[in-house]
Amino acid sequence: MQKRRFFSVALLLLVTFFSLGCTEETLEARIERLHKKMFTIDTHNDYSMWLENPDGDYGVKGGQVSFQQMHDGGLDAAFFAAYQDQGPIDPEFHRFAREYADTLILLLKQYAEQNSELGAIATSIKEMKALKKAGKVSLFLSIENACCLGDSLPLVKYYYDQGVRMIGLTHNGNNAIADAGTTKIKLHGGLSDFGKAVIAEMNRLGIVVDLSHASRDATLQAVQVSKTPIIASHSCAFAVRELSRNLSDEEIIAIAETGGVVHLALDAWLLRYGPDFSAASLDDFMKHLHYIIDLVGIDHVGVGSDFDGGGGLVDCKDMSKYHNLTKRLIEEGFSDEDIIKIWGGNFLRVFEEVERYAAEQR
Ligand SMILES: [Zn+2]
User: Fold this and answer.
1) Which DSSP string do the residues of 271-330 spell out, in sequence order?
2) Is residue 4 in some structural domain?
3) Across all residues in the chain, what is the average pLDDT?
4) What's the start-to-end Cα distance of the chain, in Å?
């Protein structure tokens, strides 16, 4: 009897040992499990300008963004920007910028309709979660350079009603709202009074404030004005790559103190020094990621590729290659919890707060 019990226990131990060995998760299985479980969000791309003019020469690569590539790379949601180049601050240009932004938004909506078996426009976290459940990706509308607002506050509501849920205040030129990071002459010393009113209106309606491209003063003032956390949708750290377009430590800390997030671009120009920009890789991306995490913590970093607008790395060249980024995070020892935060958990926290504040105002 004793002997039989001994053999039973030995057999049980043996089975447990082998089953544990067999269930040890491979790297590929962990990547797949994570992408199934977490919400992955990329906060910036410039696909819309290629839709408007597929043969355009923008000095940057295209073909990096599509619903199919999002599926292939395990990306659940992306903000697709309606971008406008900055012109003079006058009524004629404002009219043009608005018409152009409206055209891009219309084209993005048409794209979503034409590819409805793969994805759809989303305007809330609830809609995004429902789309993931249905096996589809989410297209969020955003604006890069709010010159389409001209100097008209009611247009913020007009774009909210169009479905826009994020607005980047500037591009590489000053506008009626704020100064840009890359201009030599600053017009407003940061935000204009109109710019402050625009942020208040975005807060009221439930639009995420995006400060990529804005000047240092504009960023630091926006942090004070905004009632909700703010983000940079596609920026990197100035301390790693000195460029006025990148964020200073002071700006990163200020954004983090609002509860906001810095979404790192996969953009060679922002990530590294030249001349060999074509060699930019996830190695460069990780330097910025570690730097910002060391400065403000894991709760304030995310991903904003800038694909189709200057983004693209040798080992992560378009949206279909996003598993490589997850793989790299795992290899560098990030926990599942950290990876979930970087890939979208942090942004969802911001977006929830933006939605909650707007709901309170109604
Ligand atoms: Zn940009």
Assistant:
1) HS-SS-GGG--HHHHHHHHHHHHHHH-GGGEEE---BTTTB-BTTB-SGGGHHHHHHHHH
2) no
3) 94
4) 75
CATH number at residue 98: 3.20.20.140
CA of 273 to the centre of ligand 1 (A): 18
CA 306 / ligand 1 centre spacing (Å): 7
Domain that holds residue 101: 40-361
- Residue 264 confidence (pLDDT) above 90: yes
Among 207, 241, 235, which Cα is nearest to 219's? 235
Q: Please give the structure tokens belonging to residue 205.
A: 């309606």
Q: How far is the CA of 19 from the centre of ligand 1 (A)?
A: 50
> Residue 184's CB: how many other CB atoms inside 10 A?
5
| 5 domain residue, yes or no | no
- Mean pLDDT within 164-181: 95
Retrieve residue 187's tokens: 């017009």
Distance 29 CA to ligand 1 centre (A): 34
Find the 234 Cα to ligand 1 centroid distance in Å: 7
* Residue 196 maps to a domain: yes
SS3 (DSSP) at 234: strand
Q: How far apart are alpha carbons 36 and 14 in whole angstroms? A: 32
What distance in angstroms lies between residue 358's CA and the mean position of ligand 1's atoms?
26
pLDDT band, residue 17 (cuts 50/70/90)? low
User: Is 3 a member of any domain?
Assistant: no
